[in-house]
């Protein structure tokens, strides 16, 4: 997946949904709906009021991965540009976030360290006993239920900032940088008992998006104004189901694959949010309605045809289907290598409900890439197919792209909304010492390619020997910022900008190919992909022969 990226209003950062109940503890793991929700955090002793429930730990997430053999998620993306005209009430609510928050007096060097993030809306308390996290908006402050050990997976590496009282925290060296400013103490309201009535929850939901959502201009210029217009419907006695429905209906209008609303564990069977299907997924839903079957059944059948088409039509029965069935490789034609990666993670089967770490994922993937690249050594061209890639870990995306890099190159840059005076963080693609291929590469994408799959697309497009073919990617690059609401629900949103080496941001519109190729034609959804790859391979074989 792609990675994520101020002292004032803070938030949390995840990407698309993550694989089954896993990834809130994996920074930079993103996935697209319908991936699964991040693992729940431990319960807290903090007293809650109305709508009480355990809260999901905040943290950046990348595209989640759905089972290639199972149902597919519908995905949508965000955009930004014109500014919505907000009613005076909303303007007043957000005034506190419009300027930097005060440091709350002199810092006590002997007490706990309290740090306020630039962007993301986090307040991090560091003590000898461990870490605590709070979420702060202009509408209030509330604790995060994540344990200290879970928080160390996001903030475990520290480095001095550019000046005294400024510090950078990282999940791991080389990963997303989160910049914090030291403040005197935790604001008093952060651990105060609060009865979170429906109107107060509405304020937190509204402020969270106003302060952190990065793509209103592209996806919903008037979204905040429309949400404010719903305020009269929200009363102190409003039922949880009605409030959840109001939030869900508002979020669907953004059409963002990295936006989600997750109910607490106790309500997850009755309160659900589903993003509307678009593109190829919308065609599959139409097929389900036409044939009277469930969307899940149609998607499973379609994925089976996709898999069989690669193995039989593209690789002609001589291919490899490995890495927990997430990777296909082989020769599509004499001299034409073929590598298909369906997710940027999931290469290790989960055991006992625990997901593999990025390090474990790479340990499982690297030997597969070694074997494939060694086999491709004499190839005249290689097709790298991520047309059905659902995202995952950015570090995995970069590791695969490094197999095609001949020298260090800027892959992409990223920064977060509200991260004041924090320069964009650059991610450099560095050549690997392991087997690699530096010849001509044809990168294949589609509207399904999303999140970390799109970060991979940015990295590959930075290489001069790569030609991008297919259709536009999904357009959901930002990591998912995971924000627990004080009542136990959780919202996911896009708060980061990813730009290519030329400074272009493809969020909400997708990265366009240099060479159009209809990968999933409406007239032949089941077999069109295999036939398109077969035709591409044959054309490259003919070109190599000449």
Automatic annotation (TrEMBL):
SUPFAM superfamilies documented for this protein: ClpP/crotonase (SSF52096)
Superkingdom, natural source: Bacteria
Region annotation Disordered: where it falls in the sequence: 1-67
Protein name in the entry: Peptidase
Pfam entry (one): Peptidase_S41
Tail specific protease domain ranges (all copies): 307-518
CDD domains listed in its UniProt record: Peptidase_S41_IRBP (cd07563)
Matches recorded under InterPro entries: ClpP/crotonase-like_dom_sf (IPR029045), Tail-specific_protease (IPR005151)
């Amino acid at each position: 997946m792609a990675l994520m990226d101020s002292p004032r209003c803070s938030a949390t950062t995840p990407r698309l949904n993550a694989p089954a109940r896993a990834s809130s503890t994996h920074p930079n793991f993103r996935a697209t709906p319908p991936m699964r929700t991040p693992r729940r955090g431990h319960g807290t002793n903090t007293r809650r009021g109305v709508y009480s429930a355990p809260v999901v730990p905040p943290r950046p997430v990348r595209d989640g991965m759905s089972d290639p053999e199972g149902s597919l998620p519908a995905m949508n993306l965000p955009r930004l540009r014109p500014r919505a005209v907000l009613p005076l009430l909303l303007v007043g609510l957000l005034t506190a976030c419009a300027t930097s928050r005060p440091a709350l007096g002199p810092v006590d060097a002997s007490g706990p360290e309290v740090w306020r993030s630039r962007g993301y809306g986090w307040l991090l308390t560091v003590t000898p006993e461990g870490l605590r996290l709070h979420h702060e908006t202009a509408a209030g402050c509330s604790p995060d239920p994540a344990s200290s050990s879970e928080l160390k997976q996001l903030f475990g590496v520290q480095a001095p900032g550019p000046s005294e009282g400024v510090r950078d925290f990282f999940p791991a060296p080389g990963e997303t940088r989160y910049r914090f400013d030291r403040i005197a103490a935790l604001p008093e309201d952060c651990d105060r008992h609060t009865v979170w009535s429906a109107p107060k929850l509405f304020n937190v939901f509204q402020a969270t998006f106003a302060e952190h959502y990065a793509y209103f201009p592209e996806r919903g210029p008037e979204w905040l104004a429309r949400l404010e217009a719903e305020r009269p419907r929200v009363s102190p006695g409003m039922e949880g189901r009605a409030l959840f429905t109001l939030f869900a209906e508002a979020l669907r209008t953004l059409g963002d694959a990295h936006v989600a609303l997750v109910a607490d564990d106790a309500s997850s069977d009755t309160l659900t949010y589903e993003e509307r299907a678009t593109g190829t997924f919308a065609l599959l839903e139409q097929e389900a309605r036409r044939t009277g079957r469930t969307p899940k059944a149609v998607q499973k059948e379609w994925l089976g045809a996709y898999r069989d088409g690669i193995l039989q039509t593209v690789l002609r029965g001589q291919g490899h289907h490995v890495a927990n069935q997430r990777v296909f490789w082989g020769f599509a034609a004499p001299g034409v290598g073929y590598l298909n990666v369906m997710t940027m993670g999931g290469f290790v089967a989960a055991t006992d409900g625990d997901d593999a770490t990025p390090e474990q994922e790479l340990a499982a993937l690297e030997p597969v890439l070694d074997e494939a690249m060694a086999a491709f050594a004499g190839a005249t061209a290689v097709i790298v197919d991520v047309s059905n890639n659902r995202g995952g870990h950015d570090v995995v995306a970069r590791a695969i792209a490094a197999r095609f890099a001949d020298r260090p190159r800027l892959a992409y840059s990223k920064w977060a909304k509200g991260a004041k005076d924090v320069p964009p963080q650059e991610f450099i693609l560095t050549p690997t010492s392991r087997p690699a291929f530096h010849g001509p590469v044809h990168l294949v994408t589609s509207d399904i390619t999303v999140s970390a799959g799109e970060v991979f697309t940015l990295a590959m497009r930075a290489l001069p020997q790569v030609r991008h073919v297919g259709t536009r990617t999904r357009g959901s690059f930002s990591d998912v910022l995971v924000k627990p609401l004080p009542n136990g629900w959780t919202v996911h949103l896009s708060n980061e900008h990813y730009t290519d080496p030329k400074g272009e941001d493809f969020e909400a519109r997708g990265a366009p190919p240099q060479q159009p190729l209809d990968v999933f034609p409406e007239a032949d959804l089941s077999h069109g992909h295999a036939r398109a790859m077969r035709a591409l391979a044959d054309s490259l074989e003919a070109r190599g022969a000449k």
